[in-house]
Amino acid sequence: MQRRIRFLTYNVHSCFGTDRKLDPARIAAVINECRPDIIALQEVDVGRVRSGGMDQAHMIATHLRMEAQFHPALHLEDEKYGDAVVTALPMRLVKAAVLPSLGEPRGALWVEIDLTVVKLQVIVTHLGLRGSDRARQAAVLLGPGWLGGIAQGEPVVLAGDLNAIARSAAYKLVARQLKDAQFEVNAKPRPTFPSRLPLLRLDHVFIGEGIKVERCEVHSSALARVASDHLPIVADLVLEPLEARRADSQPAYGGNGKKIAEG
């Protein structure tokens, strides 16, 4: 009844590397090194002059032989910039919207991914640079229109560049309701930014109920260190359907209706 998936989150920096080279194929190659099933992307350009007018979400998905769902947090005429989810699994858009911001516009994208035995809710976001913005944005994401509207016990992953270290207000808000995947397996989580010499842990994968983390690592190959200014996080997750979790939580009873003693 369990389902294993590999999840990756990656701020691709509009596909500009630390060598200033624009190369969506290189971003796809970094992702392909990890062989993920579901990919959350931030800082994706679509139709922007600075990146040659290309549709980066579509290009990366095509390289990976997957499909993309894109949401522009910033939309000026034909130029778009925002977040995407890329996968070959059946995917349905649930919600895409902007988040409150006094600085650069920010948004979030929510998709439901059908894993046959369970439907996984995935929310990808890129929070603002101002601490006050991040706190408001995190509060909205935890509210009834987003995470607060998901049925209790339904598996959910919230991932992205939160621009937030562990002692920040935004991080603490999210960590009260969800578990940090890096902390589930690592005594000392690794930083993700800047990619050449990581010092800050700005990128995160948070998980809800019914998800176990088998592995969670910052992918720091030679290619990853140059393809973007952030390093991706890859997590191996195990999902168990709600019905199975409920069955496991029920006491076992013998023929006389009495609970069977454990051990």
Write the layout of secondary structure elements.
Blueprint: E1 3-11, H1 24-34, E2 38-46, H2 56-64, E3 67-76, E4 79-87, E5 91-99, E6 106-114, E7 119-126, H3 131-142, E8 156-161, H4 169-175, E9 179-180, H5 181-185, E10 203-207, E11 211-218, H6 224-227, E12 233-239, H7 242-249
Parallel strand pairs: 1-2, 7-8
Antiparallel strand pairs: 1-12, 2-4, 3-4, 5-6, 6-7, 8-10, 9-10, 11-12
Helix pairs in contact: 1-2, 3-4
In short:
This protein has 263 residues and is α+β, with helices and mostly antiparallel strands. It has helices at residues 24-34, 56-64, 131-142, 169-175, 181-185, 224-227, 242-249, and strands spanning 3-11, 38-46, 67-76, 79-87, 91-99, 106-114, 119-126, 156-161, 179-180, 203-207, 211-218, 233-239.
Spatial order of the strands forming the largest sheet: 3-4-2-1-12-11
In terms of per-residue confidence, which ranges show pLDDT below 50 for 5 or more consecutive residues? 252-263
Q: Strand share of the residues?
A: 25-35%
Number of helices: 7
SSE-based structural type: alpha+beta
Query: Which outline best applies?
Result: globular
What fraction, in percent, of the residue positions are helical?
A: 10-25%
Taken in chain order, the helices and strands follow as EHEHEEEEEHEHEHEEHEH
DSSP strand tally: 12
Q: Sheet bearing the most strands, described?
A: 6 strands, mixed
- Determine the N-to-C terminus distance: 25 Å
Radius of gyration: 19 Å
Residue-averaged pLDDT, rounded? 92
